[in-house]
C-alpha cells in the first residue's frame, strides 16, 4: 500500500497543501540552471535549450551546437531540434502543445513535439526594432520591442500581428505580464507593465495608469482564472490584487529584496515564489509554507496546482481537495470519513461498521459521492481503489442511487492511469482532465504518436476513432521506409472495418511527401466525392477528378472540375477531357450564361452546326448596332442552311432579318423604339401611331393571317379609344374572330355602351353572359327568356341587385314555368 495520503500534507492557516512525487525523471544529471526552460500546462512536455547568458565560460572551453530538447514530464526525451537560427528571446507552449520559439529578429518558430515546424513573423515593427522580451499564453503572445512598443498576436493559425497602444515607455518595464483575452471584459488581450511605482494597463485602445504606489514591482503573475494578480515589490513584499485593481487582497513581507527566479500561482488561492534553493508558498491569509531544494528547479503553473521539475523528479504541489481532506484529516467525522472507516471495520468483521453506516444514513449518498470524488484526486492506484471500494460499499445500503458519477469516475481513472504511466508521461489530474476534455487528451496522445493507446481509449469511452486512425495513417506514410504498395495495403487493411472513414486527408499527406501514386490509390477508397475530387485536382489528376465528380452525380462538383480545367488547360485539351455526356450538358448550361465564346469553340471542334447557329442568335441579341446584329443573324442562317433538316429555322432567321430592316425604316416615321420588337408588336405600334397603311403593308409583306391582324387592330383601337374606327372595322366585313373580342376590349376600357353594340352581333348562347358582364341584367334576362332557359333566368335574377328588374325577371320565370 502506498504511504497514507496525509504523509506529505502541510497546513497553511485552515487549509492543507500537499507535494506529491509523480515521477523519478528519466533524464540523468540534468542541471536546469544552465538551461532556458519552458513547460506546457496540463501535464504537457518540457522544452529546454542551453541559456547562452548563463554559459559563456562553458561555451569558450567546450563548443557545442545549440539544441532544443523536448522531454515528457517524466524526463523522457521526445525530440531534439538542432538550433541554427537567431538568438532566442523566450519559449512557451500553446494549448495544442506546439512549442513557440520567439526570436530576436521578430520571427516566431512553431514546432510540434516531433520537430515539424512553421515560421511566422511579428511584422516590420518587431523586425526593425528587434524583440527584447515576450509573454506567451495558450493561443497568442505579446512581444516587447527594442523601442518599447507592444506587438500582439492573438491567433497562431491566422497570424495578424497588431501594434497595441503606445505605453509611452523610455526604458524597459521593471516587470510585465498579460491577461489573456478570455479573462478581460473587452475580450482583447491586456498587458500590465510595471513602471515607476505604478502599473500601466495597455490594450489596443490606450494605456491606463492604475494609480497604485506600492511599486516598483519586479515580478508579477496572473492567476489561472485571470481574477488575481500577484506582485513582488522591490522592497521584498508580495502583494495580491484583484486583476482589475479594485482590491488589495494580501500583503506579505518575504524579507528578500532579491526578485524570485519565478513567481507563479498554485491554482487560484496561493502564490508560489522560487529563489535558488527555496520555494515559498504564500496563502490568502498571509501564512506560508517553505520547501528547500539543493538544486535548480522549474515551476510549471497548472489550473489546480504547480508542477515542480527538478533534476531527479517531477512533483505536484496543490491544495488538498475538500473531499480528500474530509476523509483523511485526523479526527474527521465527515460522512465520507465515516463511510471509509466503516469499510475498514467491515473488512475486520467489526460491528462498528454497522454503527458508522447507521450514523450517516441520511448523508450516505453524499458520503458515496465524496469518496468517489476523492478517488479522482489521488495519483496512487492503491488509494484510488480503496476510495472507490468505500463508495461501492456505501452504494449497497442505498435503495436508489444514480451510479453514473461512480461509473464515469471509474472510467476516467482508468484513462488517467494509462496516460500517467511514465512511458507516456502526461501527469494530469482529474480536474485538469475534466477541463481539457477527453477529446483534447486524445489529440495530445495522437500528436505524440501514442496511436494505439489513443485508439483503445476512444473505444473504451465509446468515442469516434476516425481522427486517431487518420493521424496514424498519415504518420505511417511520413515515417515509414516501406514501398508504396506495402504502405497502401497496410493502411487499407487497418481501416477496412471503418466504413465512412475519410481517406482524403491521408491521400493528401501522401501527395505532400512526394508519393502521388499512393495518394491516387488511397483516394479510390474515399467515400465522399466532395473530399475526393478537390484533392485529385490538386494532384493534377484532372481526368480522374472529372470521372469521380460525374460518378457522384453532384452537379456542383462537376462544375467545380469543369471551371478548374477551363482555366488551366488550352481549349483543345479542355474539350477533349470534358467530352462526356454529363460534363458536356453542364458545360452548355453554364457557358450559355457566362461565356458564349467558349461554348462556340466547343461546338466548332465537335462540328455541331445547329448549336453554333443558336449561339449566333444569342450573340445577335447582345449587339446594340443594327448592322452588327443583322450580320450575326446572317451567320446563324448560313449555319442552319448547312443542315438540311433545319431549313425552317434558316427561313425564320431570314424573315427576322427582313423585319429588322423594315423596323429600321419605320422608325424614321414613327416615334419610339421598334427595332427588336416582335412582328405583332410592330404592327400594334404602327396602328397606335395612326400609320394604318404601314400596318396593312406589314400584314401583306409578312403574310399575317386575318385572325391575328384583327386581334391586333381591336386591341390597338381600344387602347386609342377610337370607337368609330373599331365600329368601322366591325362593319368592314364579317369578323374572322367573331365579335366577342370587340366586347371584351370595350369592357376592359370600361365602355359598356360600346360593348352592348357588339353583344347583339355575338352568338345568342353567349349574349346573356356578356350582358351580365356589363351589368345589363334586363337585357341578359331577355336573351335567356328568348331561349326559354329558366335555369339561366334564375341565375341572372340571383345576381341582379336592382329590385325592380329582379321582380321583372321573376315574372318571366313564372311565365315560362306556367306554359
Automatic annotation (TrEMBL):
Q: Which family does it belong to?
A: Belongs to the VPS16 family.
Gene Ontology cellular component annotations, sorted alphabetically: bounding membrane of organelle; endosome; HOPS complex
Keyword Protein biosynthesis attached: no
- For this chain's UniProt record, which GO biological process terms are given? endosomal transport; intracellular protein transport; vacuole fusion, non-autophagic
Quote the protein name from its UniProt record: Probable vacuolar protein sorting-associated protein 16 homolog
Task: Kindly name one Pfam family recorded for this protein.
Answer: Vps16_C
Would the keyword Signal be found if you checked this record's keyword annotation? no
GO molecular function annotations of the record: actin binding
Print the keywords alphabetically.
Protein transport, Transport
The residue ranges of the Vps16 C-terminal domain are 501-802
This chain's function reads: Essential for vacuolar protein sorting. Required for vacuole biogenesis, stability and to maintain vacuole morphology.
Residue span, Vps16 N-terminal domain: 5-407
Amino acid at each position: 500500500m502506498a504511504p497514507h495520503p496525509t504523509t506529505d500534507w502541510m497546513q497553511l492557516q485552515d487549509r492543507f497543501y500537499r507535494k506529491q512525487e509523480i515521477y523519478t525523471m528519466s533524464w540523468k544529471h540534468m542541471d536546469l540552471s544552465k538551461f532556458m526552460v519552458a513547460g506546457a500546462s496540463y501535464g504537457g512536455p518540457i522544452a529546454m535549450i542551453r541559456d547562452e547568458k548563463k554559459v559563456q565560460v562553458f561555451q569558450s572551453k567546450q563548443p557545442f551546437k545549440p539544441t532544443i530538447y523536448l522531454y515528457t514530464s517524466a524526463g523522457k526525451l521526445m525530440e531534439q531540434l538542432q538550433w541554427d537560427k537567431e538568438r532566442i528571446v523566450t519559449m512557451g507552449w500553446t494549448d495544442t502543445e506546439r512549442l513557440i520559439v520567439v526570436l530576436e529578429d521578430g520571427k516566431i518558430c512553431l514546432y510540434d513535439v516531433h520537430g515539424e515546424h512553421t515560421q511566422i513573423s511579428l511584422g516590420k515593427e518587431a523586425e526593425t526594432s528587434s524583440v527584447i522580451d515576450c509573454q506567451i499564453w495558450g493561443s497568442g503572445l505579446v512581444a516587447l520591442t527594442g523601442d518599447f512598443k507592444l506587438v500582439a498576436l492573438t491567433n497562431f493559425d491566422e497570424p495578424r500581428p497588431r501594434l497595441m497602444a503606445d505605453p509611452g515607455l523610455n526604458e524597459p518595464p521593471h516587470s510585465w505580464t498579460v491577461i489573456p483575452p478570455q479573462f478581460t471584459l473587452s475580450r482583447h488581450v491586456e498587458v500590465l507593465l510595471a513602471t515607476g511605482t505604478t502599473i500601466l494597463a495597455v490594450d489596443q485602445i490606450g494605456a491606463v495608469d492604475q494609480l497604485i504606489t506600492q511599486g516598483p514591482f519586479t515580478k508579477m503573475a496572473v492567476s489561472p482564472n485571470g481574477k488575481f494578480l500577484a506582485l513582488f515589490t522591490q522592497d521584498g513584499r508580495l502583494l495580491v490584487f484583484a486583476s482589475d485593481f479594485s482590491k488589495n487582497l494580501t500583503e506579505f513581507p518575504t524579507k528578500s529584496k532579491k526578485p524570485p527566479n519565478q513567481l507563479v500561482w498554485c491554482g487560484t488561492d496561493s502564490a508560489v515564489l522560487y529563489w535558488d534553493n527555496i520555494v515559498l508558498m504564500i496563502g490568502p491569509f498571509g501564512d506560508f509554507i517553505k520547501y528547500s531544494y539543493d538544486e535548480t528547479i522549474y515551476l510549471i503553473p497548472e489550473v489546480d496546482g504547480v508542477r515542480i521539475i527538478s533534476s531527479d523528479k517531477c512533483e505536484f504541489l496543490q491544495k488538498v481537495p475538500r473531499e480528500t481532506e474530509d476523509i483523511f484529516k485526523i479526527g474527521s467525522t465527515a460522512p465520507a470519513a465515516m463511510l471509509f472507516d466503516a469499510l475498514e471495520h467491515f473488512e475486520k468483521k467489526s460491528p462498528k461498521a454497522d454503527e458508522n453506516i447507521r450514523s450517516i444514513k441520511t448523508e450516505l449518498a453524499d458520503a458515496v459521492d465524496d469518496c468517489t470524488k476523492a478517488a479522482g484526486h489521488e495519483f496512487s492506484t492503491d488509494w484510488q481503489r480503496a476510495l472507490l471500494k468505500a463508495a461501492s460499499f456505501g452504494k449497497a445500503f442505498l435503495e436508489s442511487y444514480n451510479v453514473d458519477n461512480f461509473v464515469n469516475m471509474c472510467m476516467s481513472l482508468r484513462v488517467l492511469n494509462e496516460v500517467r504511466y511514465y512511458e507516456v508521461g502526461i501527469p494530469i489530474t482529474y480536474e485538469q482532465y475534466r477541463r481539457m476534455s477527453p477529446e483534447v487528451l486524445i489529440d495530445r496522445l495522437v500528436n505524440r504518436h501514442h496511436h494505439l493507446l489513443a485508439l483503445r481509449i476512444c473505444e473504451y469511452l465509446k468515442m469516434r476513432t476516425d481522427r486517431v486512425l487518420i493521424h496514424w495513417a498519415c504518420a505511417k506514410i511520413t515515417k515509414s521506409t516501406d514501398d508504396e504498395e506495402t504502405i497502401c495495403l497496410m493502411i487499407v487493411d487497418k481501416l477496412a472495418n471503418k466504413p465512412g472513414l475519410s481517406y482524403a486527408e491521408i491521400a493528401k499527406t501522401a501527395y505532400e511527401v512526394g508519393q502521388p501514386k499512393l495518394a491516387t490509390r488511397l483516394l479510390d477508397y474515399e467515400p465522399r466525392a466532395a473530399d475526393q475530387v478537390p484533392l485529385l485536382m490538386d494532384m493534377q489528376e484532372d481526368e480522374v477528378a472529372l470521372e469521380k465528380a460525374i460518378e457522384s452525380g453532384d452537379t456542383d462538383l462537376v462544375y467545380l472540375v469543369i471551371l478548374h480545367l477551363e482555366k488551366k488547360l488550352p481549349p483543345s485539351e479542355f474539350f477533349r477531357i470534358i467530352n462526356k455526356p454529363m460534363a458536356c450538358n453542364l458545360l452548355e448550361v453554364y457557358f450559355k450564361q457566362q461565356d458564349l465564346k467558349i461554348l462556340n469553340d466547343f461546338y466548332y471542334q465537335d462540328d455541331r452546326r445547329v448549336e453554333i447557329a443558336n449561339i449566333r442568335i444569342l450573340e445577335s441579341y447582345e449587339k446594340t448596332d443594327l448592322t452588327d446584329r443583322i450580320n450575326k443573324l446572317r451567320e446563324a442562317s448560313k449555319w442552319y442552311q448547312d443542315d438540311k433538316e433545319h431549313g425552317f429555322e434558316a427561313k425564320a432567321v431570314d424573315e427576322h432579318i427582313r423585319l429588322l430592316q423594315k423596323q429600321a425604316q419605320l422608325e424614321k416615321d414613327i416615334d419610339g423604339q421598334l427595332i427588336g420588337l416582335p412582328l405583332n408588336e410592330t404592327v400594334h405600334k404602327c396602328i397606335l401611331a395612326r400609320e394604318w397603311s404601314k400596318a396593312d403593308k406589314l400584314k401583306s409583306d409578312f403574310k399575317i393571317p386575318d385572325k391575328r391582324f384583327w386581334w391586333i387592330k381591336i386591341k390597338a383601337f381600344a387602347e386609342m379609344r377610337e370607337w368609330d374606327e373599331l365600329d368601322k372595322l366591325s362593319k368592314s366585313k364579317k369578323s374572322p374572330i367573331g365579335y366577342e373580342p370587340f366586347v371584351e376590349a370595350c369592357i376592359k376600357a370600361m365602355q359598356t355602351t360600346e360593348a352592348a353594340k357588339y353583344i347583339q352581333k355575338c352568338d345568342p348562347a353567349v349574349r346573356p353572359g356578356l350582358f351580365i358582364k356589363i351589368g345589363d341584367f334586363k337585357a341578359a334576362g331577355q336573351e335567356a327568356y328568348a331561349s326559354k332557359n329558366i335555369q339561366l333566368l334564375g341565375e341572372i335574377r340571383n345576381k341582379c341587385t336592382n329590385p325592380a328588374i329582379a321582380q321583372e325577371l321573376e315574372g318571366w320565370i313564372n311565365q315560362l314555368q306556367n306554359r
